[in-house]
């Protein structure tokens, strides 16, 4: 069974074709299933298959279309990150010990996708505890990058990004606290959107065996992934809104319209590197090329601004607050060891690695003070967005790197233009939007000289998600977007 004309279409295109009766939902589901069966032995993106129920949902979608029903995702093939509860399917978060944990009800985001007519075909692979930019675990194995099987697809939503790049459906659901939506999108040449913090209710995106109750996870969000920019808005609107368990009812959320609808009206600050975490020449090159394109298209492009918050200070703050949150769930002996090590740190050691260690040991008093610093940071960003509509900056310092499963991530190294850097320092660029809770849209911008995808993130004002999303659409329309991987373009 060869690739059909629909295998790499966007959800917007598929929806139009379904309404026009050019294709059926069952045909779309069968095409995606066929691609999974042919190719996923190499990619290993889909860790849990749900084909029978997916085909049943596709048949129901065709019946609804025949009745002239209209729902946002009706008949569209979708995959879901393994960390979301789906009734009857295991949720492990990559832990073998939880291999038999099977929820009896769907997470709220999955319910909303199903109510919108989405056809869910399976769950996508993740790293253990969603805590890596590689997607491997002892239960489901390693997910590979469809552009180079020897390299990471990103993480922790790496199975989702690989599935999209390989043509296993048009949409996927992911999550992000340290770049877990944006990093895999970057490494696999697809699109993702990290929403404004707390915009999307995530009940049921909960580590097993915890109950699926509303749960406030500082810094963490869920969000959409796709092969086209407009698809992000389509899925975001389906997922958006408060949790009725907390708010009494699921009212429709009205986000402000995008600030502009034409490239020439956008005021854009472009950042391509920083001494805190330099980027390699491939990343700088693609950002410079995009900036030049935007300038020629009439956008008002600036390459520096005194309004940009201090990247070094905000990166250190992010490391402390992130690890303070993550450290709460560390095993007691690991936590105790980290606290002991933090006490030995010299006061003048302000490396990102040191700040992560301090974060694990952060007292509640210090966390409250850090929260105050974050409040001030958000105020700085609000001031910046009076003069700019968006900030374009790196997602990661290099294209996808070879698989590295060394157990201590702090001991891993990445090479940036030949110079080794601490692996976990890569948190800095995703953190630029995560710490202040800003929306950020990841877009592909082409390929590095070695053929690996590269891209950028578009950071926008808080609760103005439609502004970076619209800019992403305009850039895609003007300069191009997703390009299928050659080895899976069949």
What is the secondary structure topology, with strand pairs?
Layout: H1 11-19, H2 25-43, E1 46-49, H3 51-66, E2 77-81, H4 108-115, E3 119-124, E4 136-137, E5 141-142, H5 158-166, E6 171-176, H6 182-188, E7 191-194, E8 221-226, H7 229-239, H8 244-247, E9 267-270, H9 281-296, E10 300-302, H10 311-327, H11 332-343, H12 352-360, H13 364-387, E11 390-393, E12 413-416, E13 419-422, H14 428-434, E14 440-447, E15 453-459, H15 466-479
Parallel strand pairs: 2-3, 2-6, 9-10, 9-11
Antiparallel strand pairs: 1-3, 4-5, 6-8, 7-8, 7-14, 11-15, 12-13, 14-15
Helix pairs in contact: 2-3, 5-6, 7-15, 10-12, 10-13, 10-14, 11-12
Structural class: alpha/beta
User: What's the CATH topology label of the largest domain?
Assistant: Amidase signature (AS) enzymes
CATH class of the largest domain: Alpha Beta
Instruction: Give the total of domains.
Output: 2
The SSE order reads HHEHEHEEEHEHEEHHEHEHHHHEEEHEEH
Poorly predicted sequence stretches spanning 5 or more consecutive residues: none
Description of the molecule:
The chain is α/β, with parallel strands linked by helices and 490 residues long. The protein folds into 2 domains: 11-243 and 441-488, Amidase signature (AS) enzymes (Alpha-Beta Complex); 263-402 and 412-423, no CATH class. Helix content is 37%, strand content 14%. The strands form 3 sheets. The protein has an 11-stranded mixed β-sheet with strand order 1-3-2-6-8-7-14-15-11-9-10, sandwiched between helices. It has a two-stranded antiparallel ribbon with strand order 4-5. A two-stranded antiparallel ribbon has the order 12-13. Strand 12 and strand 13 form a beta hairpin. Helix 2 runs antiparallel to helix 3 (51-66). The radius of gyration is 21 Å and the shape is globular. The mean pLDDT is 96.
């Amino acid at each position: 069974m060869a690739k059909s004309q629909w295998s790499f279409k966007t959800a917007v295109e598929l929806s139009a074709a379904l309404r026009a009766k050019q294709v059926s939902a069952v045909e779309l589901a069968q095409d995606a299933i066929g691609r999974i069966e042919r190719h996923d032995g190499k990619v290993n993106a889909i860790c849990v298959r749900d084909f029978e129920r997916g085909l049943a949902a596709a048949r129901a979608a065709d019946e609804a279309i025949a009745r002239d029903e209209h729902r946002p995702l009706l008949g569209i093939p979708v995959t879901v990150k393994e960390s979301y509860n789906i009734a009857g399917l295991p949720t492990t978060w990559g832990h073998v010990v939880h291999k038999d944990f099977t929820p009896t009800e769907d997470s709220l985001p999955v319910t909303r996708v199903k109510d919108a007519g989405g056809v869910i075909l399976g769950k996508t692979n993740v790293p253990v505890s969603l805590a890596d930019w590689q997607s491997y675990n002892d239960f489901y194995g390693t997910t590979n990058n469809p552009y180079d099987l020897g390299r990471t697809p990103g993480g922790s939503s790496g199975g989702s990004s690989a599935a999209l790049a390989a043509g296993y459906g048009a949409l996927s659901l992911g999550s992000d606290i340290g770049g877990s939506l944006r990093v895999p999108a970057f490494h696999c040449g697809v699109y993702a959107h990290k929403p404004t913090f707390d915009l999307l209710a995530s009940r049921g995106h909960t580590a097993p065996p915890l109950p699926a109750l509303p749960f406030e996870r500082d810094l963490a969000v869920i969000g959409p992934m796709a092969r086209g920019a407009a698809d992000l808005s389509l899925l975001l609107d389906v997922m958006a809104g408060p949790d009725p368990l907390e708010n009494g009812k699921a009212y429709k959320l009205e986000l402000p319209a995008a600030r502009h609808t034409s490239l020439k009206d956008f005021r854009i600050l472009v950042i391509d590197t920083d001494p805190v975490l330099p980027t390699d020449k491939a990343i700088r090159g693609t950002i410079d090329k995009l900036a030049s394109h935007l300038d020629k298209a009439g956008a008002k492009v600036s390459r520096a601004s005194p309004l940009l918050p201090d990247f070094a200070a905000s990166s250190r703050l992010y490391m402390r607050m992130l690890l303070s949150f993550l450290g709460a769930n560390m095993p007691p002996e690991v936590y105790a060891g980290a606290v002991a090590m933090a006490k030995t740190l010299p006061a003048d050691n302000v490396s990102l690695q040191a700040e992560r260690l301090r974060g694990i040991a952060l007292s509640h008093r210090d966390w409250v003070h850090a929260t105050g610093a974050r409040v001030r940071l958000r105020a700085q960003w609000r001031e910046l967005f009076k003069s700019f509509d968006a900030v374009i900056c790196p997602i990661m310092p290099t294209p996808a790197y070879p698989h590295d499963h060394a157990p201590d991530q702090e001991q891993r190294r990445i090479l940036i233009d030949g110079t080794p850097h601490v692996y976990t320092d890569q948190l800095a660029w995703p953190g630029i939007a995560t710490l202040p809770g800003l929306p950020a849209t990841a877009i592909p911008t082409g390929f590095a000289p070695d053929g690996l995808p590269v891209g950028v993130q578009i950071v926008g004002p808080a609760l103005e998600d439609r502004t970076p999303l619209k800019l992403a659409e305009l850039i895609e329309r003007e300069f191009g977007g997703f390009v299928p991987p050659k080895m899976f373009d069949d």
